[in-house]
Design brief:
The chain is an alpha+beta fold and 209 residues long. The chain has two domains: 62 residues; 100 residues, H-NOX domain (Alpha-Beta Complex). It contains nine helices and four strands. Strands 1-2-4-3 form a four-stranded antiparallel sheet, with helices on one face. β3 and β4 form a beta hairpin. α1 packs across α2, α2 crosses α4 and α5 packs parallel to α9. The longest helix has 16 residues.
């Protein structure tokens, strides 16, 4: 797992629940013993088992369902000021939430421009009815779809849209060549794309005063 992902998870736990909780999670998961007190480095790569160990420890110590914790992580990635570059990357997808949804097919390519070695799941958006969409997340780490639910919920609010989201579960499918992979499905219903004003967003970063 890329260090940016792990560092974001570390920052989320520390910011949302406190530094003491993060230290307990790091100790319980073995991260402190392996990486030291500072934890993950953003520009390194780590074995996926370390990410899973942190999540497992957080679920136990916080007494929170894993899915709920992952959705909160997704929301944090949009709302926290330190994650503003990610918000900007996503908001460049369009001027409305619906435009943004149509841009998700291209997110993997846009993310590679910013971080070439960041491997994101394949995302595919399709219309399933009037203002209803299905997002397919293929080949990602277990639970990535719940992170996307949190991201989508936060971005809907960011755009000012009234949206209902439902994670429809995980399925196994075959890639080309017969290799099995996980697919997570998210149903998206856009009830009102301009429900409220939303948060301010400028295409160009404001110049320093």
């Amino acid at each position: 797992m890329h260090g940016l992902v792990n560092k974001a998870l570390q920052s989320f736990i520390s910011d949302a629940f406190g530094g003491v909780v993060w230290r307990d999670v790091a100790q319980h998961s073995g991260i402190t013993q392996l990486l030291g007190a500072d934890g993950f480095e953003a520009m390194q790569s780590y074995d996926d088992s370390l990410t899973e160990a942190v999540l497992d420890a957080a679920v136990v110590l916080l007494r929170r369902p894993r899915d709920s914790l992952l959705e909160d992580l997704g929301t944090y990635l949009i709302y926290n000021e330190r994650m503003e570059p990610l918000r900007r990357l996503l908001r460049f997808g369009g001027v409305s939430f619906t435009d943004f949804l149509y841009s998700l097919d291209e997110l993997q390519g846009r993310s590679h421009l910013a971080v070439p070695d960041l491997a994101l799941p394949d995302l595919a958006i399709s219309e399933v009815g009037a203002d209803r969409f299905l997002l397919t997340c293929t080949g990602g780490p277990l639970g990535f779809g719940h992170v996307m639910v949190g991201i989508l919920r936060a971005l809907a609010d960011d755009y000012g849209a009234l949206v209902v989201l439902e994670h429809q579960g995980i399925r196994l499918t075959d890639r080309a060549g017969g290799a099995p992979c996980m697919v997570e499905l998210i149903e998206i219903a856009v009830h009102d794309p301009a429900y409220h004003a939303g948060r301010r967003f400028d295409l160009a970063t404001e110049a320093a005063q």
